[in-house]
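User: quick one, sequence for these tokens?
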């Protein structure tokens, strides 16, 4: 069996261009789907996949680890830069999809699953609609309460918000009170049985991240995400040690050694590896083993497209440490037209039952994808009041 070609399909979905990877083989009807979405770097990833094709076309697609080693290590440069690691991830997911199809088994079963009966999912406030999630001002507490109510009405038992405003490396009391009011409004709206998460988007400095974390402690957040830059392991470890609220991070890490250092310093309690950036299933399974040794939970980052979601679920049904699946469902109204999924979503509680189809269980509607060609992503740029550059 041989790989005969790699194709990329770019599908513009407002905030992101989803990049789907299709691996073709010389076996009639046998192909694999992966995803390599990297917002604001779409053309670079598509080019990186073209560069990697040289290494894998003509090879046996079921030798996934061998191909992963080639993609990561050959031609001198290692594959942990975000563009190439995303390209490798998309190809790796598609290779595992092929292995599952060859075996006639869902990927989770290839790895000894399913390890659970269902997976709980969580949404972004507004279901992933850009305006609701990213552009609701942190000082609009009433709106946070409304959107929280809506998430619960939609069946979710957990949701994530961006209730922490951008701040300079040091600011006073006001942004803390703003964040506190937004979280209080959400907690007041949904009660204590619902899990609330706050994503800081690595906006704060470690000092500000700690202050926000302390201010939000009384609200019992399920987790507190990226309270400072991922590069600042001392800051993450300091905040994680100082809070009862579990710190979550990992979506921007792209190699096993970065996760090793994060875990060794106890920078988090929840590892948010991204299957489309960290090196695909092959790398994710190594990262999960490391996390398991530290009893760190897994909650993969997944605001991307439908292949990424299916991949996160396959991974989750094979990993005991997996706690919840991030999802977006309302980013574009035609999301479900692009994909046929193998898993079953129960609206009440928004839980997912295992995929029964081989591989990652999805088929992409190529004609539908072609209706949404590449468009430049909308810029998301932050400047502080004094005009200096901030983090989005
Ligand atoms: Mg995040």
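Assistant:
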């Amino acid at each position: 069996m041989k790989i005969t070609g790699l194709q990329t399909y770019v599908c513009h979905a407002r905030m992101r261009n989803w990049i789907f990877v299709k691996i073709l083989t010389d076996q009639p009807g046998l192909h694999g789907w992966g995803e390599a979405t990297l917002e604001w770097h779409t053309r670079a990833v598509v080019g990186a996949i073209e560069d990697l094709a040289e290494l894998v076309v003509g090879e046996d697609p079921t030798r996934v680890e061998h191909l992963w080693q080639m993609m990561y290590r050959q031609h001198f440069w290692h594959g942990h830069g975000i563009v190439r690691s995303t390209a490798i991830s998309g190809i790796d997911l598609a290779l595992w999809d092929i292995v599952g199809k060859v075996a006639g088994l869902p990927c989770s079963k290839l790895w000894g699953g399913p390890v659970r009966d269902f997976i709980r999912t969580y949404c972004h406030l507004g279901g992933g609609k850009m305006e609701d999630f990213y552009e609701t001002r942190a000082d609009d507490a009433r709106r946070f309460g409304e959107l929280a109510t809506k998430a619960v009405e939609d069946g979710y038992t957990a949701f994530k918000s961006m209730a922490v405003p951008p701040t300079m490396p040091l600011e006073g009391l006001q942004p803390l009170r703003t964040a506190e009011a937004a979280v209080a409004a959400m907690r007041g709206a949904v009660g204590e049985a619902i899990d609330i998460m706050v994503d800081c988007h690595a906006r704060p400095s470690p000092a500000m991240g700690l202050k926000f974390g302390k201010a939000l402690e009384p609200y019992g957040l399920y987790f507190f995400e990226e309270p400072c830059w991922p590069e600042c392991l001392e800051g993450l470890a300091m905040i994680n040690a100082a809070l009862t609220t579990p710190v979550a991070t990992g979506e921007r890490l792209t190699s096993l050694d970065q996760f090793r250092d994060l875990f060794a310093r106890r920078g988090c309690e929840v590892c948010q590896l991204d299957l489309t950036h960290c090196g695909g299933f092959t790398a994710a399974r190594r990262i999960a083993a490391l996390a398991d040794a530290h009893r760190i939970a897994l909650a993969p980052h997944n605001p991307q497209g439908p292949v990424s979601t299916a991949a996160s679920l396959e991974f989750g049904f094979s990993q005991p440490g997996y706690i919840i699946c991030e999802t977006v469902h309302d980013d574009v109204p035609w999301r479900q037209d692009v994909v046929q999924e193998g898993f079953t979503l129960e609206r009440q509680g928004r839980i997912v039952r295992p995929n029964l189809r081989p591989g990652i269980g999805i088929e992409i509607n190529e004609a539908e994808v072609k209706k949404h060609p590449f468009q430049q992503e909308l810029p998301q740029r932050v400047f502080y009041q004094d005009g200096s550059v901030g983090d989005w």
